[in-house]
Design goal:
- Probably acts as a heme chaperone, transferring heme to an unknown acceptor. Binds one molecule of heme per monomer, possibly covalently. Binds 1 [4Fe-4S] cluster. The cluster is coordinated with 3 cysteines and an exchangeable S-adenosyl-L-methionine.
- It comes from Arthrobacter alpinus.
- Residues 25-269 form the Radical SAM core domain.
- GO terms for molecular function: 4 iron, 4 sulfur cluster binding; coproporphyrinogen oxidase activity; metal ion binding.
- It is a single chain.
- By secondary structure, the chain is of the alpha/beta class.
- It has helices spanning 54-57, 66-83, 106-120, 139-147, 162-168, 176-187, 204-216, 234-240, 249-265, 285-291, 318-326, 340-351, 365-376, 382-386, 394-398, 400-408; strands at 31-37, 91-98, 122-132, 152-158, 190-197, 221-226, 269-272, 275-277, 295-299, 304-307, 310-314, 332-337, 358-359, 389-390.
- Helix 3 (106-120) links the parallel strand 2 (91-98) and strand 3 (122-132).
- The longest helix is centred in the N-terminal third of the chain and has 18 residues, at 66-83.
- The radius of gyration is 21 Å and the shape is globular.
- The two termini are 31 Å apart.
């Protein structure tokens, strides 16, 4: 998903050419594609992503024309990367996020994917995911996605409890989720389910119901994210006016611990702080590419990209995005080139979130000295730390920011 607020940065060149740093060592990094589909039937009250309902589009932008516009950015990206001296690499993962990608016809999503595969190719066994709302798919549409090259679908379930879904402004019927999961499996797709905990008014029993219900569908993967109240959202305004209670960090911690216990008992294991999979092969390979610092190009309005320490982001509105591409120009609104210190900070922050851990011999001497304190505070696994890998304990997962600060101070 793509946040609505864009960061500040340097101007991005209209030809999309990347600085020489981007190509350095590229052959050793994997290459992924993210495609942002910025359309939703209804804007959820908690959502701060760069999405638009049909009435918000205006300016000549349309869902019908979107696939053709996205294909133009695929073609632009291929030219820009080649002109920047990037080696030819096949795609290791592709991810369609939103918004609600499955508001577009399955044929449109397959058309965008097909253009990307034609330009770059796919590695053997490459993961190709689309997010979906349970009420935006049918057996036929999921079968068309599978036939078009998709391998995985991630359903936004969020909760199994109607009053919690109402606070989140989620419109799907919770009874629709098991049907959508069954259809996806029948079509041949792997299945992930997304949950949100800490919604105002959600009791611990409500959360347990949601986790147990998600497990009953026997998905390959479950993500559980704590609710973050973003400024400018409907939910933030409701909390400010006292219409719903504020979120509570202690409540989040208790619910995280419960989720981890239930998910582990249900046969899943954590591989990233907010993600659990049935087997290592079921982990979201696309998200792992982000956490491991690989390269990806982000297609779509507001989408972010990263290649070799160069990061850029596209203009937000679909109309401005389409106009740039119609003129043969980069849709990028700005970019930044990360220095060595920033790249190291991000490597530590992201890699430490993974169950595979952070190799202590890659840390600075100062950071290695901090490991003893992290062991004493029970934030990292002592046995694995002594063996040379920093892996968070359950307590460490709850206090991951403190671990990062200790390693960077």
């Amino acid at each position: 998903m793509t946040p609505s607020a864009l960061p500040l940065g340097d101007p991005a060149p209209a030809d999309g050419i990347l600085p020489a740093q981007a190509a350095a060592g590229a052959q050793e990094r994997k290459f992924s594609l993210y495609t942002h589909i910025p359309f939703c039937a209804v804007r959820c009250g908690y959502c701060d992503f760069n999405t638009y309902t049909a009435t918000e589009l205006g300016g000549g932008a349309s869902q019908d024309a979107y696939a053709a516009t996205a294909v133009r950015e695929v073609e632009f990206a291929a030219r820009a990367m080649a002109a920047s001296g990037l080696p030819e690499r096949k795609l290791s993962t592709v991810f369609f996020g939103g918004g609600t990608p499955t508001l577009l016809p399955a044929g449109d999503l397959s058309r965008i994917l097909g253009a990307a595969v034609e330009r770059w190719g796919l590695e053997d066994g490459a993961e190709v995911t689309t997010e979906a709302n349970p009420d935006s798919v049918t057996l036929e549409s999921l079968q068309e996605l599978f036939d078009g090259g998709f391998t995985r679908v991630s359903f936004g379930m969020q909760s199994a409890v109607p009053h919690v879904l109402k606070v989140l402004d989620r419109t799907h019927n919770p009874e629709r989720v098991p049907q959508a999961v069954a259809w996806a499996r029948e079509a041949g797709l792997k299945v992930s389910v997304d949950l949100i905990y800490g919604t105002p008014g959600e009791s611990l029993a409500d959360w347990e119901t949601s986790v147990r219900t998600a497990l009953s569908y026997e998905p390959d993967h479950i993500s559980a994210y704590s609710l973050i109240v973003e400024e400018g959202t409907k939910l933030a305004a409701q909390i400010r006016r006292g219409q719903v209670p504020n979120i509570d960090d202690d409540d989040h911690a208790v619910k995280y611990e419960l989720a981890d216990a239930l998910l582990c008992a249900g046969g899943l294991r954590w591989y990233e702080v907010s993600n659990w999979s049935r087997t290592p092969a079921d982990a979201c390979q696309h998200n792992l590419a982000y956490w491991r610092g690989d390269d990806w190009w982000g297609i779509g309005p507001g989408a972010h990209s990263h290649v070799g320490g160069v990061r850029w982001w596209n203009v937000k509105h679909p109309t401005a995005y389409a106009n740039r591409l119609d003129k043969g120009e980069s849709p990028a609104a700005g970019r930044e080139t990360l220095d060595a210190d920033t790249r190291e900070m991000e490597r530590i922050m992201l890699t430490s979130r993974l169950s595979e851990g952070l190799a202590t011999d890659t840390l600075s001497p100062t950071a290695r000295k901090a490991v003893a304190g992290l062991i004493a505070q029970e934030l990292v696994d002592p046995r694995k730390a002594f063996a040379g890998t920093l892996v968070l304990t359950l307590k460490g997962r709850l206090l991951g920011d403190a671990v990062t600060r200790a390693l960077l101070d």
